[in-house]
Amino acid sequence: MPKSDYADSQDRWLPAVMLWPMLGAIAVLVIAPLLWGLRISFTDSKMIGLGFNIALTLKNYNAVLTDPDTWNAIYVTVIFSLGTVIGSVTLGMTAAIVLDREFIGRGIARMLIILPWAVPHVVAALVWQWMYNPDFGVVNYALALAPFFGETPKWLSDPDFALLAIIIVNVWKTYPFAALVLLAGLQTISDDLYEAAAIDGASPVRRFFDITLPGLRRVMAIVVLLLLIWSFGNFVFIFLMTQGGPAGATNALVVHIYFEAFRFFRAGSAFAMGALLLGMSIVLTLIYIAVTREPEHA
Amino acid sequence: MRRRDETLAVDQIVRRISIAAGRLALGGLILLLCSVAIFPFYWMVVTSIRPSAQLFEFPPKLLPSADSVFSPYVTLFETSGLGRWLLNSAAVSLTTGLVATFFGAMAAYALSRFRFRGRRTSEMMLLLTQMFPAILLALPMYVVFARLNLLDSLAGLTLAYLAFLIPVAAALLKAFFDAIPVELEEASLIDGASRLGTLFRITLPLSLPGLASTYMFCFIISWDEFLFARMFIRQPENWTVSLGLASFKGEFVTPWDQVMAAAAIVTLPAALIFLALQSYLVRGLTAGGVKG
Prior knowledge:
heterodimer, A: mainly alpha, 13 helices, B: mainly alpha, 0% strand
């Protein structure tokens, strides 16, 4: 990090003046509401009353933690996030390895492959919903053409397929990010290592597991954690495509909290669940910080 | 002697075949990856120009119909609020980008160039605010904004976006300022220029690509945003494009040709900006861990 040895008289007050708008914005628009929300989670506020004088109670936490819906929401969130990570990293790694090679039209292929990242979330949700249409959708048309495939699923309205369907959309939307970051990582691995391994007669599979994967360890950790964090907070796909249904099959924590607050007007328990989500995100963020800070100390 | 020649020749043929097979496999993989990526876009456009009578046919025709119609692209502006929503989104996104980039740049410069107490804490706060799921900010902010009468207004929505985009802009720009050598600033300071003068004459002009990219990034995040808009905005005349698009989905029958036409219109500016930004984003995202 650059540090100038030359100082100016303005240097005494300038940092504060430059920083306070951002810190102020964070304090007023982020920290304060967050603390207020935490306060509400200990009351039985109905979102409209929201007085400070409501008595403190642990009732919400008690109710939320004993409610099977909460545990279902946590389960759905974890499956959704892990599914996204597995799909996105696999597809992204494949794309990165392909794009790392030289071939005619690589620039165009690269551009096409990252396009899903560029599409607005709402657009992606709508297009896929149309493609998943059980009667007229192009997905089921393709499945019907495939051999050995019995009855085509009803996707978003089938409890067994809805979550998978949304994971597929999220993988499609996020894998370009994984591909680009992993590609950047691949390009930092020295060719000498591969040449040496080739001379030693290591097979391509061996080379992948002994050189490529270890070389990508840190980049891979960043990709996995960011994908996890983003999937944890993903609201649009589930909200627009299934509203958490059918029968709670896609009712991830974020959507669950939203409905608790805006459909059932139970602010207290919505914020209590928010606190749970907050806890999980803080854990992930701390891991992320530990991973990204590593090389500075090394 | 001849035998060896023959085995050599066979070897060579085998090797050529395997190279050709490898190329073919690579080519197939590239084609497959590209089609997975772009098919939904293709399908969006094909659906948007299909006569509505042919939408609910099975099997669907994969190629555009011979009697394609482009009328949805015109009638949308007449029959729906799309024009209004585009203007609303443009206003919110342009303002958010401008303000976030300005304050983000100031904070980023301070974090990049000065050593002071609380610097690490500030950086940590910056990162933490980006990592929270949006609903954790949106819900309490909704309560606060309800009190301040900021709900159902585009100004309020802009303010909400700034809350998470100023830190994002600061993170992206800090990586950018860190990459500009301090020696350039030192030379200017030795020549007697003030710190601010140096900032405006040396550092900022050199950072123009970074500032522009940050601006565009904040623009597309605001353009794309749905959760805050959904929670904060009520009246259709205040809708942004995300809300407007989502509203097309009918209770019983969805006019998919119109939905896809509107979706294509909304995608175009975001996608163009995105492609211009992509290489910069990878660097910024992994350096600062920014929302995407």
